[in-house]
Each structure stands twice: as C-alpha cells, then as structure tokens.
Specification:
The protein is an alpha/beta fold and about 400 residues long. The protein folds into three domains: about 70 residues, Orthogonal Bundle (Arc Repressor Mutant, subunit A), CATH 1.10.10.10; about 130 residues, ATPase, nucleotide binding domain (Nucleotidyltransferase, domain 5, 2-Layer Sandwich), CATH 3.30.420.40; about 160 residues, ATPase, nucleotide binding domain (Nucleotidyltransferase, domain 5, 2-Layer Sandwich), CATH 3.30.420.40. It is built from twelve helices and 14 strands. The strands form four sheets. It has a five-stranded mixed β-sheet, sandwiched between helices. A five-stranded mixed β-sheet has the order 12-11-10-13-14, sandwiched between helices. Strand 4 and strand 5 form a beta hairpin. Helix 2 packs across helix 3 and helix 9 packs across helix 11. The N terminus is likely disordered.
C-alpha cells in the first residue's frame, strides 16, 4: 500500500485507528527490514510518516522484540551520537520443515530472512507410513528449535513443505502427495505436540515465494518450476502467489505433452513427469537412482557422458514445450528453474530455450527471461521458514508486547 492510501478493514469499510496503526507498524518494520540500519529520522523520510508517529511506532516494535536500537559510532560531529534501528536478530523467528521423497529438513530464519539453523537428513520417505515420517520431521524440528533458542531466537510460527496438493482455506490437510504415497493426511493427527503443529504448504509454492523474497531479479510475475521425484510449478502474479480456486494450481508435471504417451501414476498418459521428471531422466540415461541422483546426473553430464547428455536434452525439450504453454497463457515476466533443475541448468537451458523460441511466437521472449534459481534445492525449506517471518513483518501485532 502506498503511503497516504486509505487502509481498509477486512469488512471493506474504512479502517479503524487500530487497523491504521497495524498497517503503519508493518510499514515501519518493512522499511527497516529492507534498508537497515536506519535512524528514526530516516524512517520518517522514507515512509512519509511524521517523526512523532515513527517514534511511537518504533517504541512499540522494540517492545514487541522486532527491532533493536543502538548507538552508532561517533561521527566526529558535535552533538549526541546517532542511534541506528535494525531488525532484531535475537527474537522472533520462523521454523520451516520439509518432507521430501528422499530427505527431511528443518530451518530457522530470523526477521532479516537469515537462516540461523539448517538441518537436512537423507531419508527415504516414499511408501512409509505418514505418521512415522511426520514424527521424525517433528523431532528434527524440535532439535532445530532448541538450537535456535540457544541463539536467542523465539519461534513464532511453523510451516511444513510437502511435495503434494494442499487445498486452500487453512484446512491443515495434505490432499494428495503421490510420490510419498499419501492421501488425505492431516499433520495434526500425527504431531506429538499439539502446540507446535505446522501449517502444510506445497513445496513448489514455497520455493516460488522464497525466490520472490530473496532473489534480486525484480520480476513481479513469473513461473517457478522445480523438480525432485515429481515436477511442481508455482505462479507469482503481481507479487502474489496464485493458488487457484481451491489451491490446486501449478500441477505442471501433469500437463500432457504426448496425449498417447507413457502412462502416468496420476491415471493420465504422456504427462511431463514421464519425460522430464527425475526418474525419467535417470531411466533415459541408463543410471540407477541410488545415492543423490541429481549429483550423479551433474557428474556424468559434466564428464561428457553421451547418454546422460541426451537424456537431459530430451528432458529440456519436454520442459520447454510445457513452459511455452505457460508463457502463452499467463504472459509472465520470467521463468525460473528451481530445485534440482537449477543444479542441472547448464545442460537443460539450451533445449528449453530452443523450444521457447520456437513456440512462443505471439510476444517477444528474450532468452535471459529464463534463468536458474540461486537457491537450488534449498528454496522450499527456506520458503517455509520465511513465510512466518514475512507474515510478522506484514502484521507485527502478531508478536506479544514485552
């Protein structure tokens, strides 16, 4: 919201004073988070709020543990030393958890978005009982939270990244995670501590949000596509995650690119996953899937193995075919290859770009608009942790007053 715009309450009418203060707290915290360290006068100048208003808001944010204020080094000028505001690196934090097909993860970030605790363990989760897997990731999260507490961080929210469909409306339900073998799983039914149950969210959505918050590309509308055992995609439109009417948007892996092609476990045929998914690439390259398959593919491709190079080129063509449809449909500013695709981008990009050039003909499409993510396979877990931090910045009244 631009400074001076009338903030509206959730009912659509003029905002109350409480609503306005909440919004102004968010403006101040967001400004400091984006450009700290700043003085109170700096914040007033950047936000257009009066110095008196900024002073009151800053005091409350300090009281809620979101900001700290310290004396700056002497400047050599006459007068009192300046005081600098910064986001508190000992205080509120977000905990991200991840259940992957071959791993579990936990991450804690502070309000600056900095990862302070990072844990990942290799674990084969496909086909295992959901209750057992969730108990293990809960234990990993508890260890990460205890380590964060030792750093002075207080976890204020928990989000679980999963490779599956998560409906809208905060139902706490994982509708379907085919590569795990899960259907209609509620983490709350299996979590050992009722007070620490995380909110589940699709891993591709979280990877896209992490890309939007952490990357410096500046795109407001883009498609983020990532791969592990399956292929997931997410769309950020005008800076907002597009989830669809019921939260099922982004199933790029099940777009049919060959209508009469290979059968897919989803029940259809010729889905993208059967040509550009991890298992398909390994199969085409004649490689077994033991160990870290992404590292194995990168190693073999880097060594010039012809079968691996052919498999990655085939995957790139299939991926480019599907992404061209996405470009023609939603007209994004850019496309981002995340997850495993980011680590294989050197060999995928030429074929993907060639397909885009051939099939995106109704608008200019510069090759540089397709790029790999710098976050790689870290994106989903980082996004899970960042979601809480960003929600706090958007509404600092979530934090208790000291």
């Amino acid at each position: 919201m631009a400074v001076g715009e009338v903030f509206r309450s959730s009912e659509g009418g003029p905002a109350s004073q409480q609503d306005m203060r909440r919004q102004n707290l968010a403006v101040v915290l967001g400004t400091v988070a984006g450009q700290s360290p700043l003085s109170r006068a700096d914040v007033a100048g950047l936000t257009g709020l009066t110095r008196a208003a900024v002073s009151s808001l800053v005091d409350e944010l300090i009281g809620r543990g979101a900001l700290t204020e310290a004396e700056t080094a002497p400047s050599g000028r006459v007068g009192r030393p300046g005081r600098a505001l910064s986001v508190n690196d000992r205080g509120p934090a977000g905990l991200g958890l991840e259940v992957g097909v071959t791993h579990l993860g936990a991450c804690v970030v502070d309000l600056r978005g900095e990862p302070r605790v990072w844990r990942r363990v290799e674990r084969t989760n496909a086909g295992r009982p959901a209750g057992r897997v969730l108990a293990e990731v809960a234990a990993l999260g508890a260890e990460a939270e205890a380590e964060a507490a030792g750093l002075g961080l207080r976890v204020e929210g928990r989000v679980l990244a999963v490779p599956g469909v998560v409906p809208n409306a905060g139902q706490g339900l994982i509708e379907h995670a085919p590569n795990l073998g899960w259907h209609a799983v509620r983490p709350a039914d299996h979590w050992p501590e009722p007070d620490t149950v995380p909110v589940p969210e699709n891993e591709a959505n979280l990877g896209a949000l992490a890309e939007y918050w952490q990357a410096e590309h500046g795109a407001e509308t883009f498609v983020h596509v990532s791969a592990e055992a399956g292929i997931g995609a997410a769309m950020v439109v005008d800076g907002q995650l597009f989830r669809g009417a019921r939260g099922f948007a982004g199933e790029l892996g099940h777009i049919p690119i060959h209508p009469d092609g290979e059968p897919c476990p989803c029940g259809s045929r010729g889905c993208l996953e059967q040509y550009a998914g991890e298992a398909a690439v390994l199969r085409e390259a004649g490689l077994a899937g033991s160990g870290d398959p992404v590292a194995l593919l990168a190693e073999r491709a880097g060594a010039g193995d012809r079968a691996t190079l052919r498999a990655l080129e085939r995957a790139g063509r299939a991926l480019g075919f599907a992404l061209a449809s996405a470009v023609n449909l939603i007209d994004p500013d850019g496309l981002v290859l995340g997850g495993a695709y980011a680590e294989l981008a050197d060999w995928l990009l030429p074929a993907v770009r060639a397909e885009l050039a051939a099939r995106v003909t109704v608008r200019p499409w510069p090759p540089e608009a397709l790029r790999p993510s710098a976050l790689g396979r870290r994106g989903a877990l980082l996004g899970a942790a960042l979601l809480t931090a960003r929600q706090i910045i958007g509404d600092p009244t979530r934090l208790p007053l000291a």
